[in-house]
TrEMBL record:
InterPro entries cross-referenced by the UniProt entry: DUF2127
Natural source organism: Candidatus Staskawiczbacteria bacterium RIFCSPLOWO2_12_FULL_37_15
Protein name, per record: DUF2127 domain-containing protein
Keyword terms, alphabetized: Membrane, Transmembrane, Transmembrane helix
Domain of life, per lineage: Bacteria
Length: 160
């Protein structure tokens, strides 16, 4: 049985696709903005600000997972990850927005390109994850895997 035969399934896949691609574009905008902010900000000021905010949380709850994550992220920025973060965020953001707009305009060529490029990003994210063990990178990687899957479903549906 073809899962695309029922109207309800088609609508769910299409709606999930549209929302996911819009989220990808939205994240792309914030990735570009974050990359620009990292470029113009002093990493030590940013590092100290993050640590200050997290320490207030830890004072209230010493086992606060989010505060500990923020401190670890700030340490990574202070240890030279800033250049990688800037380049990655801006490039990833531009690609996300360009492909998201193309997908939402139903450009058939964009489907295989998006799947290939997002899969490439996932491979690189896996590599970076095993060097940094960054939770934010892990979540980005899982979201990109989901996006590739939903793009594949929508592409397959359009070709039927």
């Amino acid at each position: 049985m073809n899962i695309f035969k029922t109207v309800k399934i088609k609508k769910i896949i299409n709606r999930t696709f549209e929302i996911s691609v819009l989220l990808k574009a939205f994240f792309g905008f914030f990735e570009i903005l974050s990359g620009i902010l990292f470029t113009i900000s002093d990493r030590f000021i940013l590092n100290n600000f993050i640590i200050l905010m997290a320490q207030q949380e830890i004072a209230g709850d010493p086992d606060d997972i989010i505060a500990k994550f923020l401190i670890k992220s700030a340490d990574n920025l202070a240890n030279g990850s800033q250049i990688f973060a800037v380049v990655y965020l801006i490039f990833h953001g531009v690609v996300n927005i360009f492909l998201a707009v193309s997908l939402l305009k139903n450009k058939i060529w964009a489907y295989p390109w998006a799947m290939a490029l997002f899969s490439g990003f996932v491979i690189y994210q896996v590599y970076r994850y095993f060097h940094t063990y960054s939770l934010s990178l892990l979540f980005l990687m899982l979201f990109d895997i989901f996006i590739v899957f939903i793009i594949w479903l929508e592409y397959k549906r359009k070709k039927i």
